[in-house]
């Protein structure tokens, strides 16, 4: 599926909670002959709603390492893009933390 | 993150994602805790290991087995359309700690779950977070049938720093778990403020 690759070139390690978003211009990934069914599945799931790397792995029942490689392919093919999670330095951003607390309270 | 098809042509909201780790010994209730607040049934993701486990895993009799699987359970809480919190249960076995390094990077903080009948099971986790300066709170899971100890006694037994919050909780109870998570975030805020202060002063 990954054709023996364990890492994706030019792609730094995707965090488990990095969010994968389908590019909106792309509507015919099913027709792309270079994609495996798993690639198509990923694009399909992300088109329904942005998905984290961990969710995609669980949903498709694939190891994280495999998912990372496949996502790397899709990023290269400009079928999806990835939004990185909040960088650690900004985690101390109090306004985000306050939002998290009020969000939890409201559950 | 909302399920259901987003309207075509309208770009989907790209949520900010955060994570909190849930650590503790085997069978202490990590997945239960995640399940109590998660809006999805805890999902399981797996990572295939090749050589890493070899010195430890006894593969005699199954020499054809070159890979081991590390499983992590996780849940999701959508706080707002654009703000999503993930909870990750850390793999229990200590030899999978390299997975923790990956998980803990960029995490908001952690919950260390403790069982008063087997307190020593969580020492390793306490150690791990202390050493990496990751803010954490200790939740003492109140199992039915386990003796209840005063919070101070547990704190002493764990040799916790006085600024580490410790609270009794019930991993099955949604509101109890919510309190624990709020405590983690509050502690992370205080922790961040303290660190900034010590840098500037």
Automatic annotation (TrEMBL), chain B:
Name assigned to this protein: ATP/GTP-binding protein
InterPro entries hit by this protein: Gliding_Motility_GTPase (IPR052705), Gpn (IPR004130), P-loop_NTPase (IPR027417)
Entry keywords, A to Z: GTP-binding, Hydrolase, Nucleotide-binding
Presence of the UniProt keyword Transmembrane in the record: no
SUPFAM superfamilies: P-loop containing nucleoside triphosphate hydrolases
Organism: Streptomyces prunicolor
Keyword check for Hydrolase: yes
Family: Belongs to the GPN-loop GTPase family.
UniProt cross-references to Pfam families, sorted A to Z: ATP_bind_1
